[in-house]
Structures are given as structure tokens and as C-alpha cells.
Amino acid sequence: MSPVMERLTDAQDRFIGAVDSARDPMVNGVRRVAEWVDERIADRELPSLPFGDKVPSATELAENQHRFFARLNDSSHELVAAVIAAGVIPDSPVSAATPSKASQPKTNNESKTDKASVKAA
User: How many alpha carbons lie under 13 Å from residue 81 in its C-beta half-sphere?
Assistant: First the structure.
């Protein structure tokens, strides 16, 4: 693995670690807020919603969103792979000393060909 990929992977691992380490404090904080709210509304009758049976449960909603983002991630991965395969983005590292073809000046023949194709169109 290249040094750049090692650093990138290390940063990703630290990010995931931070998310994981925040899980318990976040869940405990939400639990305390829910208990606080419950203490204040426990003796009140809450109105029923006429469409309450059509509202998804929190678990259904969370699972649906997880599936959506997994599909979105897969789709974006396929897009990037297709772009790389099409040669739009080079798959191998490009040396800073090697200019890309797009940045190289056109020769007179290429310039004339481009102008002729524009006129023909």
C-alpha cells in the first residue's frame, strides 16, 4: 500500500473510531432526554393520529435508510469504476513531471483538424 493510501486508511479508521466511541454517550444522552420528556407528559393523554397506522416505525425507517445508502454507495462505486475504466481518470499514479494529454499544446495539424470539424458541424 502506498504511503498516501496508508495515511488515508489511517484517517478513515480514526474517523470510524470516533463515531464508535461517541455511540454510548449519544445513546445515553438521547435516553436521558426521552426520560425527561416522558416524566413531563406521562400523565397527559396524547391525541391519536388518524394516519398513525401508516407511519413507519423507527426501526423500519432506519433500516430503509441504511439500505438506501448502501445502494447509493454501491452505485457511486460502480460509476467511479466505469469512469476509471473509460480512461477519463488514469488508474495509475501520474508523475507531476508528466503533463496530461489534455494540458499539452496542440500541434498545428490537430488545431486545423479541430477547426475543420467545427466548420463542418
Answer: 6
Four-CA torsion 44, 48, 54, 58, nearest 10 degrees: 0
Q: Give burial (CB, 10 Å; 0-12/13-18/19+) of 88.
A: exposed
- Per domain, the residue ranges of the chain are 1-44, 56-90
Contacts of 93 (CB under 8 A, 6+ apart): 2
Q: Which three cell numbers stand for residue 63?
A: 433500516
Among 3, 2, 5, smallest CA distance to 13 is for: 5
List helix spans (H) across the chain.
3-41, 58-85, 108-120
At residue 69, the pLDDT reads 98
Segment 45-96, tens digit of pLDDT: 878 888 888 999 999 999 999 999 999 999 999 999 998 888 877 777 766 5
- First vs last C-alpha separation in the chain: 48
At 64, give phi and psi (nearest 5°). -60, -45
